[in-house]
Amino acid sequence: MAKQMKPNEIISEIDYKKMPEGSWLDQPAEIKPGMFCWGAKAKSIKTVGFPNARDWNPSEEDWKLPENWQGTVLEAMKDRLGKYRSFKLFMDICVRCGACADKCHFYIGTGDPKNMPVMRAELMRSVYRKYFTTPGKMLGKLAGARELDIKVLKEWWSYFFQCTECRRCSVFCPYGIDHAEITMMGREFLNLLGLNIEWIMGPVANCHVKCNHLGLEPHTIVNNVEFMLDDIETVTGIRINPSFNRKGAEILFVTPSGDLFADPGTYTCMGYLMLFHELGLDYTWSTYASEGGNFGFFTTNEMGKRLNAKIYAEAKRLGVKYIIGGECGHMWRVLSQYMNTWNGPEADFLEVPKSPITGTVFENTRGTRAVHISEFTADLIKHGKLKLDPSRNDHLKVTFHDSCNTARGMGLLEEPRYVLKSVCNNFYEMPQHTIREKTFCCGSGSGLNAGEDIDLRMKGGLPRANAVKHVHDKHGVNLLANVCAIDRATLTTSMDYWVPGVKVAGLSELVANALVMKGEKERTTDLRGEPLPNKAGGDQ
Amino acid sequence: MRFLVPLVAVLVLVLLAIAGAGAHLQFLLGVVVPYAALAIFVLGMIAKVVGWGKAPVPFRIPTTCGQQKSLPWIKQNKIENPSGAGGTFIRMLLEVLVFRTLWRNLRTEMHGTPDNPQLVYKSTRWLWLGGMMFHWTFLIIVIRHLRFFFQRVPGFVQSIEHVDNGLKFLTTYPAVTNPGKLSAALHGFLQVGMPMLYVTDILFITAVTYLLLRRIFIPQVKYMTLANDSFPLFLILGIGISGVVMRYFHRVDVVGVKNLAMGLVSFHPVVPSSVGSIFYVHLLLVSTLLAYFPFSKLVHFGGVFLSPTRNLANNSREVRHINPWNYPVEVHTYEEYENDFRAKMKMAGVPVEKEED
């Protein structure tokens, strides 16, 4: 393992003006320590029945590919070109205008020209031209076409795992070309050869069998929640009794398993528990639908569907009326744009979500019957159903990070801000070109939040972190709020690296801090056990 | 290679046309090639669009660029995040007519020092301007050319020509109120020989030149440029220059050109004897462009309308989007899960379906 790069080393390497000489068509990718994730293990691949299960090492010359791997990929490419208009169209219509070039966090953070979205897509297009277009077949390299050889395959692997499918490029492309679509196809093809990364494949295998990415078994889930309940009792004096796998509950609550596992996600999770308790909500957790996120989505379309199916299946088994979903980015891309198409017919028994507290019918979810926790909470606050003391968050100066997927695959922008402004007195937006639909990825999304690719992650995290630094320097911001489990894990690392002194929290944690609960004791600390302003010190 | 080969290719085409005209191949250059090129264009584009159309849109994946429709008191951005057909239509209209997306383009700059880096994002609209100028003037010029294909020039073509000559007003009308030397000089400048100078001609050549130069001088854009990008630019520049030369400097027999054009559209092709060879250069380059079109990136002209990240309403939470090839998949069922973990579930007090294995 190479030594981790220092922040100023990363910056010194970046020169947007400097491009390699010659044609990119024959400049192979370098598989560089710190910039890639370990290859998927045989065991994980086998668990979900994917092909070519074997242990392999990306930094070794021999990737142990199956016979005729080119044929396999080209056949799959032909198949997907017929199945996805997006893929076919995006192979054809790019004019290489360069509008997307400096929009990608990986390009901004690495200066590597092949991390310009257009170039990452060209890696695929060059092969498309060679085998599927007349000029490419006839003119070859002159027409930007090249054969699919092992160098190209390794280049694909390297760069399709240097894309977090954040879709920022598609906001700026005049034809809406979404390079996430191309990365998704690239990863489909790579999976046919057993070329995933273990940081994705491991969680997928876990999720398949144990029903969550972290592989938490049912008793562990219950135990982890018990620990949180103890902490809640310490802070509030209230003992909460949530239910698991309870039939007949009105609502099934689904959240990413990261919230059950490690801080600061666990504080967010405590937030859900406290809010639902305060409302007296008739809801249940499930150990079977114990994963809101979907790393299957980062392997193949089919695997995404297989993992996602459990949510509706569990809703059906328990007989709930609808679903509330916790804070997570890609979970909501899947729940918004894929779930109903994949598995919707299984869920026609569900009812249109209606808040039992306010009576609000969530018309916008009449198809999926899944409400985002921020939508649910914003509605509660708007109707004055929560007693809030935002001054309990006065020790925090907060900014808000829009998750890529909720921003660009959904449009959840105002709901979390409304909630945030209701529970915090000090809120500062980051610069306008770094938020909302133009938000930057944390740098580690789509399954890249491993340890071994830490340089890549910190580079990719630079644009987001640098915008946080701006408000940190200007307003003294010390908390980065978000609605994403991956953010909570990865931005914590990124902040420690780029902007020390800024902590990361889920929105529901801040809600719970401010929530005045019936019968609670006077709180002296927030959920993290840190003294509350004006309370513990008492000298202000 | 990405610039030189395409440039040479276009020059070869120019020479071929001149040589062909000199060798009395007018029928080939004026009739056979244009017909063939048009046929390739039409059939090729139909094939392309049908090909795209045949590929289904399995998922509803609009890129949402504004607030979603959710709670009634939260204002939805109906254009950037449309939930219905109307908003989507306007979104597409803005995209196609005024290049809405390029309008929001940004430039990323790194300021500060390695120990205190500052990323700055600035609005940049040069590409938008160049793109708008190029596409709109191209369209207007194509419309102006319709005068060659109608016995009586249609009214809207005349109107467009009139407006395109707009600078004439600047030079004549202000002259009444402000009879200055400038006005007279402008008038003289814009009247190159006999014909009035079309504003679009200047803008068009300027825009194509800009689009070409940015490929040569902006390092990132140069890196991504292929022959596939510079060839159409050289070709279109050649078309523009040959057209301008024909109109303003080296006049050709316009009546002869019109006879040829009328012959082509009425399927009774005639080859006039007296049209200069520069016309055949123009025509061969246009024919090349038409024939090249369906096999090139120029198909974005049709493709932009089909882009699923732009032309779909964001209503997949409300209405089920159907994937025609959706197929059943193997799922690890609850029963299998409970069989794996029954004892642990019972131990933790989690209800089970079956008490015993």
Could you walk me through the main structural features you see in this protein, from its secondary elements to its overall organization?
The complex is a heterodimer of chains A (540) and B (357). By secondary structure, chain A is mostly helical. Chain A folds into two domains: 7-196, no CATH class; 204-514, no CATH class. Chain A has helices at 7-13, 42-47, 69-83, 85-92, 105-110, 117-132, 134-139, 150-160, 168-172, 179-192, 198-210, 218-236, 265-279, 301-318, 329-337, 339-343, 373-382, 404-408, 414-423, 454-475, 485-498, 507-514; strands at 251-254, 283-284, 322-325, 370-372, 398-401, 479-482, 503-506. In chain A, strand 6, helix 21 (485-498) and strand 7 (503-506) form a beta-alpha-beta unit. The radius of gyration of chain A is 23 Å and the shape is globular. The model of chain A is unreliable at 536-540 (pLDDT under 50). In chain B, 59% of the residues lie in helices and 4% in strands. Chain B is elongated, with a radius of gyration of 29 Å. Chain B folds into two domains: 4-315, Transmembrane di-heme cytochromes, Chain C (Fumarate Reductase Cytochrome B subunit), CATH 1.20.950.20; 333-357, no CATH class. With 357 residues, chain B is mostly helical. In chain B, strand 1 and strand 2 form a beta hairpin. Residues 173-177 of chain B have low confidence and may be disordered. At the A-B interface, helix 1, helix 3, helix 4, helix 6 and helix 9 of A face helix 2, strand 1, strand 2, helix 10 and helix 11 of B.
